[in-house]
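so my prof wants the structure for this chain in the tokens format not the other one, which i didnt know existed until like an hour ago. anyway here's the sequence
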Amino acid sequence: MQFAYPLEKWGDTLKVGVNFSELSNGIRENGVLLESAPLAARFGTTYEFRTNTLFSADFAVRGKNSIDWAERLRLHIGAEHWLINGHLGLRLGYTTLTNSQKLLDGELARGVSFRNSAGQLDYAYVSGSELEDGIHWISATLRWGSGATEPVLANIPPKAPKVEEVQEEPAPILMPPTLTPPVTPETTPLELQLSDRVISPNNDGVADDTTLGLQLPETPNSQGTVRDTLKWQLNIRDEYTESVWEKSGTGLPVENIVWNGIANTGNLVPDGYYDVQLYVLDAQGKPHLKDSQKLTIDLIPATLELFEKTPTTVSMKTWDMSPLEHWKLELFDTENALVEQIEGDGAPPDEVTLTKVQSQPAATYTGKLHVQDIAGNLSTQETQLRLGTESQPTTPDTPIAPIARLTLMVGSFAEPRNAEMMATNLQHMNPNEKVAIYTAVIEGKTRHRVTIGEFNVRAEAEDLKQHIQETQGVEPILITLQ
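here's what i got, hopefully its the right format
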């Protein structure tokens, strides 16, 4: 006797069930137990593919008796496929012990079946395991009764009863709904907008992030549908086209999308130029580029140069990857009192005239140049300036040796070892020039600047500047010695 019960069914394809067989109290004679029947339990599943293919797998556990666990647990897998409208079937099965040493020593069964409304004929050939010559199995099944062939009933329509005609009111005319075109990348005019195109994510409260806006122009028919069903994707890529940040969604976002320079890895991206790309996804999930905007990450303040050009004028030079927003020049005397202040928007001019020192005797002043770029980075350069119209009395017999005030800055590094490597290379290539490393603190960040040479006027540095540019591949910057 056996008992089978279906445990679960998912749709019409996947089924799971359990089966118990050999349900008896053994073989007895005159009330005496001669041999107990080993209980067999099976737990299996079947998967039906396209109604004509069936896959099955089950585990079978047999009762104890004198068989150990290695012989009691068996695995069976099989497949069945029907051809010619379900009349011709092909089968393949494999049964084996779950013991790892005997897993490949199981029995392989191959079979074929033919069936129609009157019955079914099955043939199988089993080989492997302990079978030396294999086994042939043949079985036949006959069907009869109403279940085998059902008579075809004539479809005679019943006589329609006489129905009195009833005057019906005409049905209202329903106007067809407005046709809504499908949402496709080709027909979706989606645009990308950035609140700031240059940011410096240093938490100073100025241009720390940018807001990415998705703008959908008004269309008379598809506006509501597009807003709800549109699938979009945002990518930010670096100069090597590598994706550093990605976000996607369905429907236009209600809240603003803010990016603060943090990549998907959780790290702050380096300074540079990035592409913000907006894609629209089609029904297959393939992205289509709709808009692209440039974004600059700038955390490094501007490099400044301030020096006197004439007794009443000073020159200012700036280098920055971002446009400058504001500048201010302050002039202090030896008592640290403010003598003159000049400021303006944008980048400072190359030369500015100081009106407060035109009538003053020659003296040493402290000049401070402050600049801020559009990313919010602040930078200050402080320089001693010799200004004034009247010359200081000097002893004619005592020559005054010129003091070198200018040098070429070849690089600025956050890591000291990088600065030392460049300094060693410069000294090797230019043994007659003085190479030095200066440390500067800008906005709380330490920078190690590598300089070479000492000059009294700008013209003296031109040859060395050109030589370094040709040999090192970088353009040195002429700065004032601190």
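also thought this was worth mentioning. The first strand starts at residue 3 and ends at 10.
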